Structure prediction request, 1005 residues.
Amino acid sequence: MRPRRRPILASGEAKRRKHHPDYWLLVISIVLMMIGLIVVYAISPGLSVQKHVTENYYVSKQLIAIALGVFTFIVVSNMSIQTWRHIERPLIITAGIASLAVRVIGERVNGAYRWIQVGGISFQAAELIKFALLIWIAGFLSDRIRTGEINDYQKSFKPLIIALVLVAIVVGKVQSDLGSTGVIIAIMGTMIYVAGLPLKKLAVIAGVVGVAVVVLVLGSGYRRERLNTYLNPNQDCLTTGYQACQALISVGSGGMFGLGLGRSVQAYGYLPEAANDSIFAIFAEKFGFVGTTVLIALFVAFFSRLKKIIEHSTDTYSRFLVTGILAWLSTQTIINIGAMIGLLPLKGITLPFISSGGTSIIFVSAAIGIAFQVSRYTTYGLITNNDSEGNRNDDSFSRRRLRGAYHPNSGSR
Amino acid sequence: MRLPHKQISSDIRSTTIRIRFWYAVLLLVMGVFIIRLFFLQIIKHDYYKKVALQGQLKEYEIKAERGIISAHEGKNTIPIVLNETKFTLFADPKFITNHDSVGIALQQIIGGNANDYVTKMKLKTRYSVLAKKLSKEQKDKISKLDYKGIGLRDESYRTYPQGQLAAQLLGFVNEDGEGKYGIEQALGNDLKGVPGELKAITDAQGVPLVTNTDNIITEPKIGKRVLLTLDISMQKQVEDILKAGLDAAKSKSGSVIVMDPNNGAIKAMANFPSYNPAEYFKVEDGNVFNNDSVSSPLEVGSVMKVLTAAAALDKGVVSKDSTYNDPSFYNIDGYKITNIEEDGGAGVRSVSDILQLSLNTGATWLLMQMGGGEINIKARTVWHDYMADHYRFGRLTGIEQGYESEGVVPDPIKGFGLNLQYANTAFGQGVTMTPLQLAAAISSVLNGGSYYKPRLVDGLTDGAGVFTAKKSEKIRSDVVKPEVSRIIQNLMEYTVEKNHNIYGMPVLRTQYGVGGKTGTAQIHKPEGGYYDDKFNGMFTGFVGGDKPQYVIVVRVNEPKISGYAGARAAAPIFSNVTNMLIDNFGVTPKGQ
Prediction:
């Protein structure tokens, strides 16, 4: 056998035996995506009339996106977690180039450069940046923890601040995408926080971010307007507050049980972005309070699976990866739903799984693939002191159903 | 380098605690969301339902199709006013992004100016009309482009297969779908039908959603179809004759009415100048919309003498053989009444001379006979009774036309200088009437004494296809006695017979019973008195064997031709109309 490169692992190598993955994670993901597909299917005829496209345009688009998502999931879920460590640099470089490229070959949509057109396929650069940054930070943090330099100002704190500033400039300023910037900051913040950065340093970062947000918001007319809209959504339904107002009308008119799947009215040109950013409001109109509660419960169930994977993961790098995924998807969910129910300003952030949109679904699928793969190498119980104090062999008995003893990384030892 | 296990595990423990805390915050947020949703969807549901319906539920009027208008052509009826769907192009500026390219594309398809379209597409509104009355082909081309924010709405317009024919009589339909002038105005309520109503939940563009089954619809009721009494081909020829006659007389305007004296039906009613009702909005002078035959009363001049004679004969104060000694002028209240037309000089005159020579003194003498030899209150009252009650001057005829005018008959008792004024009315000055009123009155005198309400409508067909004929309405049957009717017919035939050369009728077809009387009417100055050099030419007559079949009234405004306007300008038109009727419209010769 030729010698393998030793995996870069912080801890718990002994437990990295493959067992069956977290199928619940997959089931919940599928259910959520199906809900999205059904809603898109139901409003597709109405939307197609409004947008002058063929009747099945939105459904076929969504089906293609889901097919690509399934493919992505199958590929990613069969990739070794360590692969991501090897491609984190090319990934972040690609993301960097893509985010600058939007300015050059990008398509201007609603006054902002966020999309790249490659051979007829639109691609939202911010989704790649989020994903690449998540991978990079997971590697960065697990390295710092391994070397014990997590509290080192020069080695940990400074690069992160630089990354943050770069994101703010590239995504926030160049792409005028404050929503995605917020999501990225939330991903980074959560990962750094979970990595154990002292709260004092976190507070400094939070302060920097806070100042940056204020500067960005006050420095841009349309953001000021949006803020006003947020503070006063019912003031003017026709102009700036239109989408926020229509979203509230959609949600509110749903009532207890909703108008029914095919009976949504707001999707017929009243509520902008009905298939994308505003899809939650359409869902709420169709299925009412019962539906929204079930949907939120499904999201919570999905997040709890991720949390469980994090808690049971023995490998620091995997933990950070899944933590990043959890932070990413939950932040988007919060920002999206929060805007639809008038608690947060509108930010143009998609609702994971549900919103129509290929880029989002593909990266979400990739993220589930990673979490799914990580879930194959969790321990049954929580990691305790015992785990690391020589009782790791006991653990092998209490492991959940073993699925083969061989693993390319751990089996060669 | 490997770290000691202890440190690693403490890191892991710390991350576990932190992730749990973080997760707790996430759950808290989700909890807040559920509470907020409960507030929005349960507590405020009624409010949002109401707000939603305010935006979504729209009421529409479904326009009813306007009834078409037809007329006779020989034994057939053919439509002369139809409906046509054309398209209005509008923009919702909110959705338009590529103004310039849309503007240029529209210019290529429908003409106009791209910059104008761009300006209209940038207006701060949600509905900006870019163009109207586009054809189906233009509409299809624009639809194919599939521009966002550009829409087309179909609208019904009146179309006129006969072009300008009978334009003033028909009237037009304005932008708001209201009938203006003519038949369109007078029968507007019948023609327009009953609009339907639609209450529906619609999309943001206002298109009712098919998924919604609770739409409330009342179907519109189609407007009634109108069948006119007109004969298209007669109308055409009369219009042509009028136009040619006015040109020959160097007159700018005039009218001709052809009426069936035996039932009041108008067979032709022509005015010049006219306009194209399909392009009514291009008309600069609004007066051209008026149907002068019913809307513009005038002093008719000597044609009135026929009616004065009929009244005197009917009253029995003169007979057809009566004669009188014409002094060539009368002095009434210090004013001299002279003969301004064919001057016969002083001498013994008969009743037939009064018409044939058109003697003002003769008409004055007739009026005097009604007062027992002088113009007095009795003469005035009797004559007023004939003018106002027998001949129905000063009253609306009730013809199916917009803006009918009733004219003025002076009061016989109240006022100053009434004797002079009444002497004038005896030969058609100082009293005004429309050509239609005159035609109706002459008809009643000629048909044996029955006044038929003049009408343009033969009947209405409702949406179910049921035709309701409009019957002739006899207002009174004792306008004059039947024998007076025959005398007048003979007198008028005699007048034409004697004067046919002056009237521009070289060949008189006496076997068809042609009779008539000229009128050269002085024109009243707005400030009082009469113009010395301006006259209106009038002619009223009939054609039709033993019994008049058609009564004709010709009016020529201010001809510039030399000679008496009635004889030189109006009579030739009458002559041509008469010949046309004899040739094409089955006038029965005498004795058949």
